[in-house]
Design goal:
Elements (H helix, E strand, L loop, with lengths): L1 E4 L4 H20 L5 H20 L1 E5 L3 E6 L2 E6 L5 E6 L10 E6 L8 E4 L4 H11 L6
Antiparallel strand pairs: 1-2, 2-3, 3-4, 5-6, 6-7
Helix pairs in contact: 1-2
Protein name: PH domain-containing protein
Keywords: Membrane, Transmembrane, Transmembrane helix
Pfam families: bPH_4 (PF06713)
Length: 137
């Protein structure tokens, strides 16, 4: 099993850590009558963001590619992957960077396309090509 951590762009870093800062401040400055709701909600939000930040990676298993982003994950069987190419966008799927790889693995765009952002795209693509019999560019 090979694991590739996600690349992290400055824009996504500023966004996520900015939200963590805002949630942290809301815990401190919230009115006392609102704390019963704000404190647990803020702590839950912070925990989710930290899980996404530190728990986004891509793992090669024997029969499938695992894309994980915190509590969210997708198993993509190698036999279903038809295309993998560099892609740049601000939209996010299982990515923390705008420098992504678009993986096509189904007939439909929304249910058959996953965007990922391994830190080392070239090495990741080489490994993916060695495992996918149907891969075309």
């Amino acid at each position: 099993m090979m694991r590739y951590p996600s690349g992290k762009s400055t824009g996504f870093s500023v966004l996520l850590w900015g939200v963590v800062a805002i949630l942290s401040v809301s815990v401190v400055i919230s009115p006392s009558e609102m704390r019963a709701f704000i404190v647990p909600a803020s702590l839950l939000g912070i925990a989710l963001i930290l899980w996404v930040w530190f728990g986004t990676y891509y793992e090669f298993h024997d029969r499938y590619l695992l894309a994980r982003m915190g509590p969210f994950f997708e198993r993509i069987p190698y036999g279903r992957i038809t295309s993998a190419k560099p892609f740049k966008s601000l939209a996010s799927s299982m990515a923390l960077s705008s420098d992504m790889i678009e993986i096509r693995h189904g007939k439909h765009y929304f249910s058959g396309t996953t965007y990922i952002s391994p830190a080392n795209r070239e090495s990741f693509l080489a490994e993916l090509k060695s495992r996918c019999p149907n891969l075309q560019n």
